[in-house]
Amino acid sequence: MAPRQEVEEIRQNLTRRDLSSAAITLIERDGLGALTMRRLAAELDCAPMSLYTHVRNRDDLIDAIVDELIERLDLREPRGEGWQQIVFQTLSAYRDLAVQLPNSFELLALAPYDTSPVAPHLARFVAGLEAAGLTTEQAQQILGIADAYASGFLVVWARSRARSDADEQSSVTDGITGLRDLGMFDQGLDALLAGLDATLVRGITPGE
């Protein structure tokens, strides 16, 4: 354990980003269930109470983690692109983040829309779709559907990956593991975009 003076210096030098980054490292190594304020303090070699200088509680820590995960998304501002390309790039960035940080990704995927890190991120997405020619209603509908698809698929993929890493696949599941392959995510995304274009944007009734 570091001497008291060193611990005090660590506490004073910590930032909110230091906490979120250390928490992500902890989650990726030991799983989401391992994240506690005490465990995080041990990671940072400081007293647990020192963390409360930067986060109010565990929920605020989760917000800090989600904020960092959003910043880690490989997104760029859309410039004159069609709405389908915006959706494709955004969901592809979610897929890449899930591959990079499978244990932490769930915190972003399941974060409520109205939390402080998430709301501005989603507002930028909707604004990009509107700039590409969609109405606000269309953009919001596409947001909800696209998010449900990406979050559902990738959370299940990440959990299945963690389980298969821990347990040997049985012969019963061997035949369906391809359904959780990331190649299926890309195929599903193509089908999703085609369906959204036909039904929500062009207004074609199924069967016509």
Topology:
Elements: H1 4-13, H2 16-30, H3 37-44, H4 58-72, H5 83-100, H6 102-109, H7 118-131, H8 136-166, H9 171-174, H10 182-201
Helix pairs in contact: 2-3, 2-4, 4-6, 5-6, 5-7, 5-8, 5-10, 6-8, 7-8, 8-10
How would you sum up this structure, described in words?
The protein is mostly helical and 208 residues long. The chain has two domains: 4-67, Homeodomain-like (Arc Repressor Mutant, subunit A, Orthogonal Bundle); 75-201, Tetracycline Repressor, domain 2 (Orthogonal Bundle), CATH 1.10.357. It is 69% helix and 0% strand. The chain has ten helices and no strands. It has helices at 4-13, 16-30, 37-44, 58-72, 83-100, 102-109, 118-131, 136-166, 171-174, 182-201. α5 (83-100) runs antiparallel to α7 (118-131) and α6 (102-109) runs antiparallel to α8. The chain is elongated, with a radius of gyration of 20 Å. The chain starts with a helix and ends in a 7-residue tail after the last helix. The model is unreliable at 169-176 (pLDDT under 50). Pfam families: TetR_N. Keywords: DNA-binding, Transcription, Transcription regulation. Residues 13-73 form the HTH tetR-type domain.
